[in-house]
Amino acid sequence: QQEEWKKLVHETTKTKDDAHVILGANIGNPGDVTGVVNNGGEAVGLYRTEFLYMGRDKLPTEDEQFDAYKEVLVKMENKPVVIRTLDIGGDKKLSYLPLPEEMNPFLGFRAIRLCLERQDIFRTQLRALLRASAYGKLRIMFPMIATIDEFRQAKAILLEEQEKLVAAGTKVSDDLQVGMMMEIPAAAVLADRFAKEADFFSIGTNDLIQYTMAADRMNQHVSYLYQPCNPSILRLVSNIIDAAHKEGHWAGMCGEMAGDATAIPLLLALGLDEFSMSATSILPARSQLLKLSKEDLAKHKEAFLNLDTAEEVLDYVKTKMI
Ligand code: PEP
Ligand code: MG
């Protein structure tokens, strides 16, 4: 199997019926790009920038961030790179940025909520991103968007920084996309409205499942509720993908579910355009996708979306779709 996978490093990911899907990787550091390239990644589907801020005693400067973002874009040689703005709070804390103690950190002051409040931190990161955009195919992504208003505010701040940079003669890419994580049920339900504002969606199933099932993703006692293939989750995913397509946008997934061999046929059937996973999952996923027919699988969509339980869905996939 390993040998079979290795032969696929330079192949594009085309299904049996010639549908192209993009297989990307999730990274935490510029150094991870080597693994992405060696495993045949067609994109970076999620760069979690919080690692740039962690394990140190002060905020990273604009130049430090610029260097990191530029390195990833250059090493990816004009393949798409989705960089997510700071997603701190929840389980991720910074020693030099004291935040209020919270009863429910995962429902609290984190990610875009914090960035819209601490605009000094946010604007520094956006400037670094905009400057780096000249070196590749950058897609900027905002995390934990719950309302249209949050997305508009974040985008307006980005455009302000962009205007300032351009006025000062700094080159900014004219092929920049601005999208959002789909990881809060409120946004997933309202995806048709968000699709009028955002250039793309990336579905963060790690959080989307936790918030939809109201089950802490770290708590073992409720881990039985963590069901990627529950029809409720699949309907949200389907709604998000359809909404993106209706506006001519692409939809990806960067949560763990995207690299799950059982979920892949379902996601292909729902029309997912980009799958982002850990680099080592890319070749096995490509090998699987080359043998699947998107058109054939799509015929099962209505059937599996109308099952009652995750168990029934898993059973359906295994007997009819793999
Ligand atoms: C997610 O929520 O699915 C996701 C990709 O983001 P993170 O795991 O960093 O919260
Ligand atoms: Mg998340």
UniProtKB/TrEMBL annotation:
<keyword id="KW-0460">Magnesium</keyword>
<feature type="domain" description="PEP-utilising enzyme C-terminal">
    <location>
        <begin position="3"/>
        <end position="291"/>
    </location>
</feature>
<keyword id="KW-0598">Phosphotransferase system</keyword>
<comment type="similarity">
    <text>Belongs to the PEP-utilizing enzyme family.</text>
</comment>
<keyword id="KW-0479">Metal-binding</keyword>
<keyword id="KW-0963">Cytoplasm</keyword>
<keyword id="KW-0808">Transferase</keyword>
<keyword id="KW-0175">Coiled coil</keyword>
<keyword id="KW-0762">Sugar transport</keyword>
<keyword id="KW-0418">Kinase</keyword>
<keyword id="KW-0813">Transport</keyword>
<comment type="function">
    <text>General (non sugar-specific) component of the phosphoenolpyruvate-dependent sugar phosphotransferase system (sugar PTS). This major carbohydrate active-transport system catalyzes the phosphorylation of incoming sugar substrates concomitantly with their translocation across the cell membrane. Enzyme I transfers the phosphoryl group from phosphoenolpyruvate (PEP) to the phosphoryl carrier protein (HPr).</text>
</comment>
<dbReference type="GO" id="GO:0008965">
    <property type="term" value="F:phosphoenolpyruvate-protein phosphotransferase activity"/>
</dbReference>
<protein>
    <recommendedName>
        <fullName>Phosphoenolpyruvate-protein phosphotransferase</fullName>
        <ecNumber>2.7.3.9</ecNumber>
    </recommendedName>
</protein>
